[in-house]
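Dear support,

I submitted the protein below through the web form. The confirmation email said the job was done, but the results page showed an empty box. After a refresh the structure appeared. I'm attaching both so you can tell me whether what I see now is the final result or a partial one.
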Amino acid sequence: MNIIVLENEPSSYRGGQEKSLFDVCQGLAYRGHKIYFLYVTKGDLLEEYQKFCHQTLLVRGYFFDKKNLPKSILRFIVDLLKVPILENTVIYSNQYHDSPFGSGLSLVNHKPYVCHLRLPPYRDWETDRKSTRLNSSH
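What the results page shows now:
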């Protein structure tokens, strides 16, 4: 199987999520799967990934920059088009923040997209706190 993996920065300094992804990718590669590793920022684990990944590919990001939307959309599309898509491919992201890019790859290429939900979804805690206060006063 071909697995396209999305990661922001392959670094051992960021935490357990990045180390876990490294172990997952390494294990899948050793089981015969071809890993196509996409990253945004070089990290200290990149050389280690290059030892077992079929290909590593630098991309500019996984979402749109609202401050410069036209240029951001163009870069996004260019990055989508440079990712090799083969038969028997799945797209895997390590966090939901990468979903715009993963979903785009999935939609354009008709391939399954899997998002490993390691982090809780974003919540607006201030709004939740105000809502709770309003509801408890009734």
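Response: this is the final, complete result; the empty box was a page-load delay. The chain has one domain: 2-136.
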